[in-house]
Amino acid sequence: MDESVVICPQCGTNNRIKVPTTDRVPICGKCKSSLPWIVNGTDISFRKELETSTPVLVDFWAEWCAPCRMTAPVLEDLARDRAGQIKIVKINVDQNPTTAGRFNIQSIPTLMLFKNGQAVDTVVGAISKNALLERFGPHLA
What we know:
Elements: E1 2-7, E2 14-19, E3 38-40, H1 46-49, E4 56-61, H2 66-81, E5 87-92, H3 97-102, E6 110-115, E7 118-124, H4 129-140
Parallel strand pairs: 3-5, 4-5
Antiparallel strand pairs: 1-2, 4-6, 6-7
């Protein structure tokens, strides 16, 4: 099983996280704080990634997409600032056309927020962290 290293935003400890993680928010082995939860989803794993009580923000993106590259650090900041409150699933549309087609993704980046497995909001295009929090914040409370 693959592992990734996630730095705890509270104490700075490096944590090895098994990928894919379970449906529970990953926690720091040292201070027990919630860790940022970002996973790379696939056509095969997508349904499983939504099986959590934590809101899931799906980022439909591609490597060649400049606005997608601008959005990536915003999502990393959001995951770090809202650790324990959100799971981010990155879906590369070139490698996972079935999932992109299922949601009729025609422009990227497209960000879709899911709660309890159901889509509740969508944003198309690059977006600032403040605008993202303004749009999705009520769903994360």
